[in-house]
Amino acid sequence: MKPAAFEYYAPRTVDEAVALLKAHGDEAKLLAGGQSLVPLMNMRLARPGVIIDLNRTRGLDGLREQRGVLRIGAMVRQRAAERSALVASRCPLLRDALTWVGHPQIRNRGTIGGSVAHADPASEVPAVLAALDGEVVVRGPRGARTIPAAEFFVTYLTTALAPTELLTEVRIPALPRGAGWSWMEIARRHGDFALAGVGVVLALRGRVIGDARIGLTGVGPTPVRARAAEERLVGARPSEALWQEAADAVRAAVEPDGDLHASADYRRHVAGVLTMRALREAFGRAAHTKRKGRGRAA
Amino acid sequence: MKLDGTNTLPAPVETVWKTINDPDALRRCTPGLKELKPTGPDSYAATLSIGIAAVKGTYAGTLTITDKRAPTHYKIVLEGTGGAGFMKGEGTVDLEAQGAETLMRWASDIQVGGLIAGVGQRMLSGVGKMLIGQFFKCLEQQFEGAGAAPPREVGGASGTAQGER
Amino acid sequence: MATRDIALTINGRAYQGRAEVRKTLADFIREDCGLTGTHLGCEHGVCGACTILMNGEAVRSCLLFAVQAEGADLRTVEGLADGDRLHPIQQAFWENHGLQCGFCTPGFLMTTVEFLRDNPHPTEREIREGLAGNLCRCTGYQNIVKAVAAAAEVLAAAKQGARGRRRTSGHLPAAVKSTPRRRPKVRRAGPARARRRRSGGTTR
C-alpha cells in the first residue's frame, strides 16, 4: 500500500505548472487535494511518473462573485466553500451538496477544482456544475479557454481537459434571487459515493414555475441534466402531480449502471423519488422566500 | 458481466469475416492492445494496457479464436493478468448476410478480478460496455472507406482526453 | 529515488528529516519522527486511523506525502495529554469505554478534537455524522458516541467556568511512558531553535 516512485514538483505559479505539464505530458498527474488520486497511487492502480503538486501554487484559491457568477479558484478547499458566507447566500445548492462530499477530513483537503477535474460519476460538485450551467477555465501551453459544463464531462473519470491543461477556475452562476433549491442524495453510509443524487433549483414566476434545473449524479457516466423534466416544469403550476410527472421524466432520462451496491432499477427508481422530494423542498423554499417578501419572484 | 448487441456493418459477409479474423484489424480496434504476436494458428500472445483516466494497468495474456465456422461464427477469448488484477473476456460473434451488408450479433461474458475489480467495482460494467462499444465502432469504421482511423480512444493507455487543443 | 529534507512541527516540537518524496506523512510521522500513535489502517483514505491535525484541520495523513507537510504545524495523539493528565476527550473515552483494542482510537480522538471545536453542542446524530470518516471494528460505535457527547459537556463547561489552563504539549502521560525501541532517524532541532509552545490556551 505504498505508492510507486515518482518525480515531484511543487510549482509556485500556474505558468510553471503548465510548463511542467507540457514537459511531462502523459506521465504527469496534477495533485490537488489528493483525496482521490493518492488512494489510487497507494494501491498502485495509478502510477504517474511525475506529480505536480498544486498546493503551493499561487493564484488558485480565490472565491468571489462577479456579475452574478461565483468564481471559485480550482484549489479552494471543499470545506472553505462549504463554510463560505458567499456560497451560502449566492449558491446554497453548492453548499448543501458539499455537505455530502465524503467526510470533514476529506473536505479539509479536497478541492472544488479537483472534484470537477476528477469527474467521478457519483460525485456531487460536477452535478451542481451541470445543473447550473457552470463552466470551467483551463490553462494550457496555448493559453486559457473556457469550457461549459455540458461539454466538459466526457465519460467516467474523463473530461475535456487535455494532458497539458490545468483547471484554474470553476464558475457557477448564482441562484436567481428568491429561487428555491434542494440537494437530495442517497448513499449506503453518510459520506459514501452517491447511489443517486439530485440537485434542483426552482424559480417562481407568479403562480407558475419560471425556471427549473435538475442535475443528477450516480446515474450515468457523467452528470445528467434532466432537460425533458425541466421543460415539463417551466410554465406549469406547482403541484404534487407535477412533481410526479417530472420524476417520471427523470426516470425515463437516466440509464444507470447496476453494481454491487445497487441495481440499475433501484437507481432509476430512487432517482425519481429523490427528484420528487427535491422538487417539494425547493418549491417550499421558493414559496417561503416569496411569502417573506425577500427578493422578487423570478 | 454479460454484454451483448447487434451491429449492421456496411460490407458483405465474406469481407467482414476476413476482417474480424485479421490480426491487424484486431490490433487496431481492441482498446489498449499494445502487442499481438501469433503463437499458433488463431492464437496470439497479447499485451494490453488498459484503464480509464489515471487508473491504468498492464495485462499480459492471450487472444484465441476458436469454434470457427466460416464465414458466420466464431468465439474469441481474450484473457490477461497484471499487477492490478486479471480479466477474461469471451465473446461469440455471429454474422448474417443481409444483401450487401452484414448483421453482426455478438454476446460476451467478461470477468474482472483482483484489485481493480474491487476498487473499480462501481464503474466496471459501465467502462466495460464503453470499451466494447469502442471495439465495434472501430470495426465499423474499417469498412467505411479505406484506412479509416480508429476512433479516439478513451480507456486505452494512449490517454484520457480528446486531444490537445 | 528523489529525497527531500522536511522540517515541520509536531505537538509543538520541531522535527527535521529526510525522506523519499513518495513517503506518506503517516509513515514519516511513525518511522522518522518515532511517533507511532498515528496508525495505518487502510492506507487509502477510508478508515481514518491515520487522522491527525495539520494546521488545525483533521486530515488523513496516509493521503499526504511528507514533503507536502513542509513547514506545517501538526498535532498527533501524543500531543493531547498534559503530562500525566489525559485530555478531556481521552478521559471521556476512557470513562465511557469508548475503545476496546484501541487501534482506531487515535484517529477518533483527533477527529473529535476538530469536531467538538467546530460543533461544541452536537446532537447524537451530528456526532454520528461527524465521526463517519472513522471506522471501528470493535465497539459498534455506541460508546464512542457516548464518549464524544460526554467530552462535549466537559469542554463546554470548562470553557464557561475555568480559566485557561496552562499546558505544555508533547509529553506522554506517566501511565503511558514508553522507551523508544529505536532512535528516530530524525535530528530534533536544538534548544536554541526548537519552537516549543509554552503558553496556555492550546486549541482543543
Note down, in words, how this protein is organized.
Chain A is α+β, with helices and mostly antiparallel strands and 298 residues long. Chain A is 37% helix and 25% strand. In chain A, strand 8 (153-155) and strand 9 form a beta hairpin. The termini of chain B are far apart. Chain B has a single domain, classed as START domain (Alpha-D-Glucose-1,6-Bisphosphate, Chain A, domain 4). Chain B is of the alpha+beta class. In chain C, strands 4-3-5-1-2-6 form a 6-stranded mixed sheet, sandwiched between helices. In chain C, helix 2 packs across helix 5. With 204 residues, chain C is an alpha+beta fold. The model of chain C is unreliable at 164-181 and 190-204 (pLDDT under 50). Chains in contact: A-B, A-C. The A-B interface holds A 26, 29, 37, 40, 43-48, 118-119, 121-122, 140, 142, 145, 154-165, 193, 221, 257-261 and B 51-57, 83-84, 115-116, 119-127, 129-130, 154, 159-165.
Identify the CATH architecture of the largest domain in chain A.
Answer: 2-Layer Sandwich
* Largest sheet descriptor of chain A: 5 strands, antiparallel
What is the highest CATH level, the class of the largest domain in chain A? Answer: Alpha Beta
Strand count of chain B: 7
- What is the tally of helical segments of chain B? 4
Question: Largest interface, with Cβ-Cβ < 8 Å?
Answer: A-B, 36 and 30 residues
Backbone structural class of chain B: alpha+beta
Q: What's the shape of chain A? A: globular
Q: Number of DSSP strands of chain A?
A: 14
Mean pLDDT of chain A: 96
Strand order of the largest sheet of chain A: 4-5-10-6-7
Strand portion of chain B, in percent?
Answer: over 45%
**What number of domains of chain B?**
1
Concise synopsis of the structure shown:
The complex is a heterotrimer of chains A (298), B (165) and C (204). Chain B is an alpha+beta fold.
Strand and helix layout:
The complex is a heterotrimer of chains A (298), B (165) and C (204).
Chain A: E1 7-9, H1 14-24, E2 28-31, H2 37-42, E3 50-53, E4 63-66, E5 69-73, H3 78-83, H4 85-90, H5 92-98, H6 104-109, H7 112-118, H8 125-131, E6 135-140, E7 143-148, H9 149-152, E8 153-155, E9 158-159, E10 166-173, E11 180-186, E12 196-205, E13 208-217, E14 224-225, H10 227-233, H11 240-253, H12 264-291
Parallel strand pairs in A: 1-3, 2-3
Antiparallel strand pairs in A: 4-5, 5-10, 6-7, 6-10, 8-9, 11-12, 12-13, 13-14
Chain B: E1 2-9, H1 13-21, H2 23-29, E2 33-40, E3 43-52, E4 55-69, E5 73-82, E6 85-98, E7 101-113, H3 115-119, H4 121-143
Antiparallel strand pairs in B: 1-7, 2-3, 3-4, 4-5, 5-6, 6-7
Chain C: E1 3-10, E2 13-20, H1 25-32, E3 51-54, E4 57-60, E5 73-75, H2 88-95, H3 105-118, H4 124-130, H5 142-160, E6 187-188
Parallel strand pairs in C: 1-5
Antiparallel strand pairs in C: 1-2, 2-6, 3-4, 3-5
Helix pairs in contact in C: 2-5
